[in-house]
Design goal:
It contains 2 helices and no strands. The chain has one domain: Orthogonal Bundle (Helix Hairpins), CATH 1.10.287. About 90% of the residues lie in helices and about 0% in strands.
Length: about 140
């Protein structure tokens, strides 16, 4: 691979790492929002249960809680499912970012090795030129 091609590959790999990082941040935000929604749904059930269990609550309050509980549990299950999907997406995003970083590191390592080989080749050629110059018979000028 030529140095120009490697540089292009590295730029592309850096772009992929950047996009994967942005996507991971979005996934973490979505996961946090889903977790907050789950906690809110769970807290709502607990709050409504406490209200229905109060000694001052009448039968209507208990019946209202009973009717509401089905919707509250459905909201909790929906929020839980959203959180689980968000967690799975975050896990996939982390894996994608890790793979992108690995690919970038491999391209950078290949580029560094290629650069080192090119420097070593230049150094060898320079040394050969010096050796040849030193081995040539010197001509003396008559003044």
């Amino acid at each position: 691979m030529t140095p120009g091609t490697l540089a292009t590959v590295i730029r592309l790999r850096r772009s992929v790492v950047s996009e994967a990082s942005i996507f991971l941040v979005e996934c973490i935000r979505a996961e946090t929002a889903a977790s907050d929604a789950e906690k809110a749904a769970d807290a709502a059930i607990a709050r409504e249960r406490r209200a229905a269990e109060e000694l001052a609550a009448d039968d209507a309050a208990v019946e209202a809680f009973s009717g509401w509980l089905k919707r509250g549990r459905a909201a909790l299950e929906q929020a839980r499912a959203m959180r689980e999907r968000a967690e799975a997406e975050t896990t996939r995003a982390r894996a994608a970012l890790s793979a992108a970083r690995g690919a970038l590191e491999a391209a950078e390592t290949l580029h560094a090795v290629h650069e080192q080989e090119m420097r070593a080749g230049r150094d060898r050629r320079e040394q050969l030129d010096l050796d040849e110059a030193g081995a040539r018979p010197k001509t003396q000028k008559n003044s």
